[in-house]
Amino acid sequence: MTTETPSLLDRVLAASAVGTRERSVDPDLVAAIVRDEFGLAGTLQRIATEKDDTFVLGRAGGAEGRQLVKVSSSYEDPLTVDLQSVALDHAAAHDPTLPLPRLRRARHGATMIAVGGGCGPHPRLLRVLSYLEGEPIGQRTPTPDQARLLGSSLARLSLALRGLEHRGADRLLIWDLQNLAQLRPLLTYVDRPELRTLVERVLDIFDSDVAPLLPSAEHQVLHGDFNRFNVLVDGAAPQYVTGIIDFGDVTRTAVALDLAVAAGSFLTAQEDPWRDVLALVDGYLEVRPLTEADLDIVAGAAPARVALRVLVTAYQRATDPERAAYLRSHGHDDLARLRALARIEPNGIRHRLQRLMERHRTVLRRNEPQ
Predict the structure, then answer these.
(1) Residue 251 in contact with residue 117, Cβ under 8 Å?
(2) Whole-number Å distance between alpha carbons of 94 and 117
(3) Domain end point (choices 74, 97, 131)
């Protein structure tokens, strides 16, 4: 008897725990572990997340005493959870002023405590992290200066993660745009003809214009999910960005794709859907120069990030409606954005990004010692 080898699509879905169902962890169990292992007590408030169970631990000391408690899914490999923790520590060590959550150690020095009760093959792992103040950007529109600060923050984070090596970094992840070609079969789950046509157009552009550039692009371990809901901001603070959270999608990928994820989140349905993105890329280039090929990748991959969420949401609607509802809350205007993007010639966007790059190169040349 022969066993059929899973397709790469099946492997990506399985590795990303897509289509799995996890039971919610008992808050009383979480409270007991946090008290006994970390010496912390307070009220737990559950917050919505895609995969894990996450709580805010409120303490009598007020805002400064709050902590974030995360319990991983039992479908998530402990190696992946360790990668997330190592990435946080590595970035904080290389750029201590980055606004990142800091891991709290338990009484005996561990950062992860095993929790039982999951549906999957792995132990659930509990971690306690510092709570960062600020509000997610959500649907608010940043000013051009604020968008530049977003871009510079992402560039700083990418530089802080450079050099990180971890045996769990080369993971299969559905949200990694490197795997986008394998997800084309999910188009069958997109039931609206117009939306399916728009997504297919974006996939075609990605296959022809982006995929050939990826093998020679610079790769490293990166955050992978710098979006409107994973960046905390304070409009009154001079640095604007007060927190970069959720390292759940950290992986080794192309540097340009990491920027494309952020760009995709800030595309709009306006007449010029790229306006905010251009300011964000401008801020990024102030901190980390990119190549012409990198910006060509961003031009084709940013819309692909929008298309990717449509594909995953459509698939989840069929397999896990509750998780699909969470994803829809992050992409309620995806159809309108794809319509707006379809009106823009890809070459036009590439030229606008190249002009940004040339302007930064000109500034660098002027500042070089004579």
Answers:
(1) no
(2) 37
(3) 131
Show the domain range for 98: 21-131
Residues in the chain: 370
Instruction: Note whether residue 311 is domain-resident.
Output: yes
Q: What is the pTM of this model?
A: 0.94
| Rounded CA separation 202/233 (Å) | 31
Do 204 and 119 share a structural domain?
A: no
Q: What is the pLDDT along the chain (370 residues), one digit of tens a residue?
A: 445 667 889 988 888 888 788 889 999 999 999 999 999 999 999 998 888 999 999 975 554 589 999 999 999 999 999 999 999 999 999 999 999 999 999 999 999 999 988 999 999 999 999 999 999 999 899 999 999 999 999 999 999 999 999 999 999 999 999 999 999 999 999 999 999 999 999 999 999 999 999 999 999 999 999 999 999 999 999 999 999 999 999 999 999 999 999 999 999 999 999 999 999 999 999 999 999 999 999 999 999 999 999 999 999 888 877 665 666 666 679 999 999 999 999 999 999 999 999 999 988 777 776 5
